[in-house]
Write a structure and sequence with these properties.
globular
Amino acid sequence: MNFNLLLLVFLAFFGVFEVCEGGGLRKNYYRHTCPLAEKIVQHVTWRHVSSNPNLPAKLIRMHFHDCFVRGCDGSVLLNSTGNGSSAEKDALPNLSLAGFDVIDDIKAELEKTCPGVVSCADILTLASRDSVSFQFKKPMWEVVTGRRDGKVSIASEVLGNIPAPFFNFTTLKQSFRTKGLTVHDLVVLSGAHTIGVGHCNFFSNRLYNFTGKGDADPSLNSTYAAFLKTKCRNLTDTTAVAMDPGSPRKFDSNYFVILKQNMGMFQSDAALLTNKGARNIALELVDSADFFTEFAQSMKRMGAIGVLTGSAGEIRKKCSVVNA
């Protein structure tokens, strides 16, 4: 009798525990409701990356911009409505975001298999991981799932939340701190600049008018500055330039190699070297194995910013619009 009673208590406890855990993020959240969800996301993402090697940088950036405004709730995916309210994707820092068609394609495939189950927020989080992982043919970090989709997207909230490329270290640190992220996360996540491009108008002041006197940023490697001037002819030039000129489509630790050589493209890159603690972290991340390990952890922490779970939000039927 005592054993049976103990068994009932044990089952009751773990039954309640499972219900409580169901309201948050966890591994294999769709295990029962959509068992093939993560495989479908990977398959569609890899198909797109195979024909567009620039996609990993675009999806990582989109995920970052989503999480830093209202949390990782897929609000960056919503279109502006006709009632005069502009959505996040129409804010200035987001006008160069790309890859929305990929998210829509993944969502369409999932809706065929398990309609109304997988959130757009989870799709974006998984796709950003899977796009980078295509190069390695294996998942490069663990993604816990169970996010739900936000119903609000406001363009005016973006500028105050997305770290700008001209931020100094103090401002960067504060920006990340407000999201529950550390200096360590700041440095590690900056390593995503090992892939993708930057547009001249966001850093050309470092070449032509750093202090307003027609001068260059003295902290910028002079050889690298001369190279950038061949790409960016003036302060208004919007040409796209690889952030890691040695391997712009290869996800590796080379960002930290060139950063050490004062070849970070943006002021926000160079800012990492102005703080002793951040600089020491950056020097450690030159090692690829260390970078991959730390990037996995920081991405997991970033992916948990302000998530909606349980009964909050909704599961959108289309990622670009809230449900009717």
